[in-house]
Design goal:
Order of helices and strands: EEEHEEEHHHEHEHEEHH
CATH class of the largest domain: Alpha Beta
Shape: globular
Strand order of the largest sheet: 6-7-8-3-9-10
Helix content: 25-40%
Distance between the termini: 36 Å
Largest sheet: 6 strands, mixed
CATH superfamily of the largest domain: P-loop containing nucleotide triphosphate hydrolases
Oligomer: single chain
Number of strands: 10
Number of domains: 2
Number of helices: 8
Structural class: alpha/beta
Strand content: 25-35%
Radius of gyration: 18 Å
CATH architecture of the largest domain: 3-Layer(aba) Sandwich
């Protein structure tokens, strides 16, 4: 399922959150949208999810303009907590199953086991890290052709991040899904990325194939990101 952002701009007040952004994302690839806080990563994902509309330009999924109805094709993990605190983990899973026809309960149960989450535990009793794991369970249990993950490792300790990144590959259907991960945790996701994009102050300033970076330039994604930012900002991060 192809995603296309065509000359997208979005302002909040006088400031651009996105400025003339054009991107094409293809099925079967994992894309990393990299940039500092406030660079426009979350707004980009919200545009694709139909939660925010551009001031100019157009967002399309498989040639159709995105509206709020796109939710049946998009599984979106927000960086914010969107839980009912009185629910248990199991209640939240059941709620998602009732809302999305593509939610796979068997997959959710396996994810809960892999993430070491107790279905009977109240959400208000979960640590920040376990709330982050629950968000991943809810997002990954869907068969939606578009998977958007906004800072999916926020609040997780390094060892947990590493294990989750490795397990992500087993839960993604590369023949049918397009995956976009917005993060500043570059080291963790580098091993699974096909393409990396750098966004700064609302503009996508670079996009590269990760394998080409390694083979042709001998750079890791993190090294390339730092060099790209330094060139743009005139300093070394």
């Amino acid at each position: 399922m192809t995603i296309a952002l065509k000359n997208i701009s979005k302002r909040y007040g006088k400031d651009f959150s996105l400025k003339n952004v054009s991107l094409t994302l293809e099925t079967g690839k994992i894309y990393g949208l990299l940039g500092p806080n406030g660079s426009g990563k979350s707004t980009t994902l919200k545009m694709i999810a139909g939660l925010v509309y551009p001031d100019s330009g157009q967002v399309e999924v498989n040639g159709e303009q995105v509206t709020r109805r796109i939710s049946h094709n998009v599984s979106y993990l927000t960086e914010l907590d969107m839980f009912y605190p009185s629910f248990t983990v199991g209640n939240m899973v059941d709620f998602y199953a009732s809302q999305f026809a593509d939610f796979e309960m068997s997959k959710a149960k396996q994810l809960l086991q892999d993430m070491k989450l107790d279905s009977a535990k109240k959400i208000k009793q979960l640590s920040k890290g376990n709330r982050g794991r629950l968000k991943l369970v809810l997002a990954l249990a869907r068969k939606a052709p578009v998977l958007l993950l906004d800072e999916p490792f926020s609040g997780l300790d390094p060892m947990v991040r590493d294990s989750i990144v490795k397990s992500l590959l087993s839960y993604i259907n590369f023949e049918e899904q397009t995956v976009l991960i917005a993060t500043h945790e570059i080291d963790e996701i580098e091993p699974i990325l096909d393409e990396a994009m750098v966004i700064l102050r609302g503009e996508v300033i670079e996009q590269r194939n990760v394998e080409d970076l390694r083979e042709e330039e001998g750079l890791s994604v993190l090294e390339w990101f730092k060099a790209t930012m330094a060139k743009r900002e005139g300093n070394v991060l």
